[in-house]
Design goal:
The protein is mainly α and about 170 residues long. Helices cover about 65% and strands about 0% of the residues. The protein starts with a strand and ends in a 15-residue tail after the last helix. It holds the Pfam family TctB.
């Protein structure tokens, strides 16, 4: 899919506005000229500037493109790519979205390890085929444990244990 730069620029500006709005609720630090909101506000302002640059570039490109040029033909804001005509590619995309929703809904009650394993196993099996089922399951298991060790143990990110608290390490 080809998207004119003005579209992601506008999305970036909207996201930055949300970030800036959230920083208004950050409490001030007693005895400090700046508080915990300073860094997110700087990032939000930089995101607004970047979004504006994308919007301006996208609108210039749109005006300057003819039927034969530009990032989207005829100056359109959005153009469907060739891969979107393929049923297999659309099925892969739909599976990815479904698995993301599944992860969001199930990760906390089921736990990070089983949920991540199921998601990775489903993706690996779909993309590699049933012929490689054994190696896909092995890769999903190793990747899940490696991610859990990296984030849960080394970086100390609290990952949900779900049904596995008795075996937490």
């Amino acid at each position: 899919m080809k998207v004119n730069d003005a579209v992601p620029g506008a999305i970036l500006i909207a996201f930055a506005a949300g970030v800036l709005y959230q920083t208004l609720s950050f409490p001030p630090m007693p005895g400090q000229d700046y508080g915990p909101a300073l860094f997110p506000q700087i990032i939000g302002i930089l995101m607004v500037i970047s979004g504006l640059a994308l919007v301006v570039r996208g609108l210039r490109t749109r005006r300057g493109s003819g039927a034969a040029g530009g990032p989207t033909a005829g100056g359109r804001m959005l153009e469907v790519a060739d891969w979107m005509q393929s049923p297999a590619h659309l099925a892969n995309f739909a599976l990815l979205i479904a698995l993301l929703i599944f992860y969001i809904l199930v990760a906390k009650p089921l736990g990070f390890i089983p949920t991540s394993f199921l998601v990775l196993a489903a993706l690996m099996t779909r993309l590699r085929g049933l012929r490689h089922l054994g190696s896909s399951l092995a890769i999903a298991a190793v990747a899940t444990l490696a991610i859990q060790q990296m984030f849960g143990v080394i970086l100390r990110v609290p990952l949900p244990w779900g049904i596995l608290p008795p075996v937490s390490w």
